[in-house]
Description:
242 residues, 9 strands
Amino acid sequence: xxxxxxxxxxxxxxSLYIFASGKKGSGKSYVCRAWWDSYPFDKLVIDVTHxxxxxxxxxxxxxxxxxxxxxxxxxxxxxxxxxxxRAYVLCPDMGSPSWEDDVDRAAGLCMRGRDRPTLLxxxxxxxxxxxxxxxxxxxxxxxxxxxxxLSLLLACPRPMDVDALGISQADLVYTFRTPVVQDREKIAKxxxxxxxxxxxxxxxxxxxxxxxxxxxxxxxLFIMPPLPPRRRGRNAYPxxxx
Length: 242
């Protein structure tokens, strides 16, 4: 079934977990930026490749660049409740012996409690977690983040070895063209969809940025149209239909 609307737009004050995967250039980063741009509260992105920071700078977006070696003990609460939300970017040095701890401590900063909704975007989720090893704060986020009004954006090109909770706990699962059978099977099994049928659907995604969307709220898989064109300047990524 093709649709542009599933179960309706979510309440941004409530926790929402999103998982997006697909080969490079397929559209997963577009999805994450669209959700990032539309999120109205404080947010942090763990940018393994440093591509997100470059894209934010190119678009003139304001953010605080966190030093992975000198992370704050907590993200500051606003003095004024009506203050504009703040964006934070952590670009870990993947050659540093402390990068795993740096990344996990950053994830912990987003667990702020029900009165402080926060979005954590983990780009290249497969680089910082696996089925056998996930940092303690990332585990807390996956298991208990909803109790802290935490929303998650998890993106990766190869989901086969990621922590399965990132998929099975997701409210929305975006899957772009995924050529490796094992990756498709990992997604299908964790959303409760028959793997062979999921694979056939994915192989038929011919147009650029065409994708499927699994909506756990409706427990349905939707075949979605290609993403709308990126606009120029700020707010370049239009809100996505859900």
